[in-house]
Task: inverse folding
C-alpha cells in the first residue's frame, strides 16, 4: 500500500508538492512554538524592562482597585506609554462603565492622551477641556468641603496640571507655541515648582524669539536645581544667540 | 488504466483543493506564531539605540528572580559571571545570592542569613571559582564564605568587613577597608598589604579587585578615587591620579580628555568613586563609578589612562543610578552591572571590549537559546531531503503500481 501511495502522489505532482509544503510549514510552526515554550515567553515571566515592571505593578494595583480613578489613570498611562492602546481603551471604558469611587478627571486626561496617540489631536483637545472642567469642579467641591470644616486652603489638583501639560504638548506639536505657553503658564500657577516645565516654557519662549522670558524661566529653574542640565544648556543657547545678535 | 488510477485522477482536484486549504491555514498559523515570537520575545519598552547613552548597547535588565514584587532585588550590589555564563548576584538587603542563566532566567537563590548566627550578613563581593565554588564577602559577619554551587557552606574564613574578592591561581585576594588580604586556597593568610590611608601604596575602602593575565593585581581604591596596580606581593606598580582632579594619571599618563579613544562625554574630570572592577577580553580595566553613574574603561598598559566612559544617570533601561559591581563575560562579550539604586542588574555591551567581526558575533548569537530550534529545524531538513529524494521515486512507484494493478487485474 505504501508503494501504491507513493505512486499515487507521484501521479499528481501538485499533490506531492503541496504535501511537502504542508509538512515544511508545520515544522516551522512547531519550531516557533517550541522556541516560545522554551524561552518562557508565554508564561507570567519576570519583568525585563522598567516599563514591564511598572506595567506589572500598575496592573496589580488596578486588579485590587478597578474603581479608583488615580489607579486606573496610572495603569492606563503605563499602557499608553507601552503602546498597548487597545488594552488602555478597554481599561478606560471599564472605568467609565462602573460607578467610580473617586473623581474621574485623571482618567479623562488619560483618555485624551490615548486619543492624541491613536485618534485626532482636535478630539484630544476637546476631551482635555472636559478633563480640566472636571478637575476644577472637583477641586471646588473639595475646597467647599474643607471650608465647612474650617480649613481655608486651596486643595491641589494634580489632574489639572496633567491636563495642562498634555494640552501644551499637543499644541506644541501642532505648531502653536503661543497657545502652549499660555497653557503652561496656567500649569505653573497651579504648581510653580516644576523645573522641567519651566525649561519647557523657556524653550517655547526661545522658539518664539522672546529670549528675555526664556532666560528668566531657565534662571528660575536653576534656582530650584542649581546644576540642572537642560536649564544650563537652554541658558547657554539664549546667551549665545544674544551675543550673535 | 486501472480502476485505482482512475479513482485517484477523479479525486485529484478535490484533494488538491483540500491540501491548499490546509496549507493556507498553516501559513496563517505560522504568521501568528511568528507574530508572537517577535512581540513576546521583544521586551516591552526595550530602549532603542537612539535612546541609549553614546557607545553603550543594552542587552537586558534583570529585576529579580520572579514576577512578584517580593521577588525583586532590593540592593543588588555585586555580580560575577561564571565560566558557563551564569550570572551571580549578591543582594545586601535580601542577604541572598541569586543565579541567572545568560538569558536572564532565574536558576537558584541561596539565602545566606541562616549561615550566620548573629546580625545582618550583608553580602558584598562575589566570585565564582572554576570548580563552581562561590566566594562571598559576608561583610557584617566578618567572614569570607565559601559555598558549593548548590548553597552548602563549605568554609568560612575570618576577615573584617570583606568588600570584594577575586581568585588567581592558588591565591584568594580579598579587599577590606584595611587593604588587601591574600589567602591560600586552604584559607591560610599568606599576606596583607596596602594598609588604610591616602599614600600612594595605601588603600581606603577598596571596592573592586581583579587579577590580570600578567598576574598584576588591580585595585579600585574607592575612597581615594584611584585605581592602583600591585604585584601579588603588594608592591605598587602604578596608580592613577586621584579622581575629581581634572584627569591625568601618574606617572606620565595623559589626561583623560587627551585620549585618542575618548568619547565626547569624557571631558576633564577623573573618576569619582571607582568601585567594581573587571577586565575585558582585550585586557582593558572596566570599572563602575557609582557617583559618575557610568562605567569607565582604563588602559592598564598606559598606567590606567582613561580610554572611555559610558553611561548617564537615569532610571530607564540602559541608564545607571549608583552602579557598583561589574563582571565581564568574554564568551558573550558583555558586562553585568549591579545598578544598585535602580534595583536591577543590567547586561550591557560597550565598544572595543571583545573580538569584533561577523564570526565572533555569530558565535555569540549561537550561545542563546536558538539551539532549541534545532530539533524542529532538523525535521524540516528531513522533510526537504525526503522531498528531493522522492523526486526520482515516482517512476519506480508507477512501474510498481502498474505491475500490482496488472496482478490485481489478473
Result:
Amino acid at each position: 500500500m505504501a508503494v501504491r501511495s507513493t505512486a499515487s502522489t507521484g501521479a499528481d505532482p501538485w499533490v506531492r508538492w503541496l504535501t511537502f509544503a504542508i509538512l515544511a510549514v508545520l515544522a516551522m510552526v512547531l519550531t516557533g512554538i517550541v522556541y516560545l515554550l522554551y524561552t518562557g515567553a508565554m508564561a507570567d515571566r519576570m519583568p525585563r524592562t522598567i516599563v514591564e515592571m511598572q506595567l506589572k505593578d500598575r496592573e496589580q494595583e488596578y486588579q485590587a482597585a478597578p474603581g479608583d480613578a488615580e489607579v486606573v489613570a496610572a495603569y492606563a498611562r503605563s499602557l499608553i506609554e507601552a503602546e498597548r492602546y487597545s488594552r488602555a481603551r478597554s481599561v478606560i471604558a471599564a472605568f467609565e462603565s462602573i460607578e467610580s469611587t473617586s473623581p474621574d478627571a485623571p482618567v479623562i486626561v488619560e483618555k485624551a492622551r490615548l486619543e492624541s496617540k491613536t485618534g485626532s489631536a482636535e478630539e484630544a483637545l476637546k476631551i482635555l477641556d472636559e478633563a480640566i472642567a472636571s478637575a476644577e469642579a472637583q477641586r471646588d467641591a473639595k475646597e467647599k468641603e474643607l471650608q465647612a470644616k474650617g480649613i481655608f486652603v486651596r486643595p491641589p489638583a494634580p489632574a489639572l496640571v496633567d491636563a495642562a501639560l498634555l494640552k501644551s504638548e499637543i499644541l506644541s506639536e501642532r505648531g502653536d507655541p503661543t497657545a502652549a505657553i499660555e497653557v503652561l503658564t496656567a500649569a505653573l500657577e497651579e504648581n510653580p515648582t516644576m523645573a522641567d516645565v519651566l525649561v519647557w516654557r523657556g524653550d517655547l519662549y526661545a522658539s518664539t524669539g522672546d529670549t528675555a522670558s526664556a532666560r528668566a524661566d531657565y534662571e528660575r529653574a536653576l534656582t530650584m536645581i542649581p546644576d540642572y542640565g537642560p536649564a544650563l544648556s537652554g541658558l547657554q543657547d539664549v546667551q549665545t544667540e544674544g551675543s550673535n545678535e | 488504466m486501472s480502476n485505482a488510477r482512475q479513482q485517484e485522477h477523479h479525486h485529484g482536484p478535490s484533494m488538491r483543493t483540500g491540501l491548499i486549504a490546509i496549507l493556507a491555514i498553516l501559513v496563517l498559523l505560522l504568521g501568528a506564531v511568528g507574530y508572537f515570537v517577535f512581540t513576546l520575545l521583544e521586551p516591552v519598552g526595550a530602549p532603542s539605540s537612539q535612546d541609549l547613552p553614546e557607545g553603550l548597547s543594552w542587552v537586558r535588565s534583570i529585576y529579580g528572580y520572579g514576577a512578584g514584587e517580593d521577588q525583586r532585588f532590593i540592593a543588588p550590589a555585586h555580580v560575577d559571571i561564571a565560566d558557563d555564563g551564569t550570572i551571580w548576584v549578591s543582594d545586601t538587603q535580601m542577604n541572598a545570592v541569586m543565579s541567572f542563566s545568560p538569558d536572564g532566567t532565574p536558576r537558584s537563590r541561596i539565602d545566606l542569613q541562616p549561615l550566620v548566627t548573629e546580625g545582618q550578613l550583608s553580602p558584598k563581593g562575589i566570585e565564582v571559582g572554576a570548580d563552581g565554588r562561590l566566594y562571598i564577602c559576608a561583610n557584617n559577619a566578618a567572614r569570607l564564605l565559601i559555598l558549593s554551587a548548590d548553597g552548602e557552606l563549605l568554609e568560612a574564613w575570618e576577615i573584617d568587613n570583606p568588600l570584594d574578592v577575586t581568585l588567581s591561581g592558588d591565591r584568594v585576594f580579598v579587599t577590606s577597608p584595611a587593604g588587601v588580604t591574600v589567602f591560600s586556597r586552604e584559607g591560610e593568610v599568606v599576606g596583607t598589604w596596602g594598609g588604610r590611608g591616602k599614600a600612594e601604596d595605601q588603600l581606603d575602602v577598596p571596592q573592586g579587585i581583579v587579577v590580570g593575565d600578567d598576574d598584576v593585581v588591580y585595585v579600585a581604591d574607592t575612597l581615594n578615587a584611584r585605581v592602583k596596580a600591585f604585584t601579588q606581593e603588594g608592591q605598587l606598580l602604578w596608580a592613577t591620579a586621584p579622581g575629581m582632579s581634572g584627569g591625568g594619571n601618574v606617572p606620565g599618563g595623559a589626561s583623560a580628555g587627551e585620549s585618542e579613544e575618548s568619547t565626547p562625554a569624557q571631558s576633564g574630570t577623573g573618576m569619582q568613586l571607582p568601585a567594581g572592577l573587571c577586565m575585558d577580553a582585550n585586557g582593558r580595566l572596566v570599572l563602575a563609578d557609582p557617583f559618575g553613574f557610568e562605567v569607565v574603561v582604563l588602559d592598564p598598559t598606559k598606567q590606567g589612562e582613561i580610554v572611555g566612559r559610558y553611561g548617564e544617570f537615569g532610571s530607564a533601561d540602559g541608564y545607571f543610578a549608583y552602579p557598583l559591581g561589574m563582571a565581564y563575560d568574554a564568551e558573550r562579550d558583555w558586562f553585568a552591572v549591579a545598578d544598585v539604586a535602580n534595583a536591577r542588574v543590567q547586561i550591557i555591551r560597550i565598544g572595543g571590549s571583545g573580538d569584533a567581526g561577523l564570526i565572533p558575533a555569530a558565535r555569540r548569537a549561537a550561545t542563546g537559546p536558538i539551539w532549541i530550534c534545532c530539533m524542529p529545524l532538523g525535521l524540516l531538513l528531513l522533510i526537504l531531503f525526503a522531498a528531493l529524494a522522492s523526486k526520482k521515486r515516482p517512476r519506480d512507484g508507477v512501474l510498481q503500481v502498474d505491475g500490482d494493478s496488472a496482478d490485481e487485474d489478473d
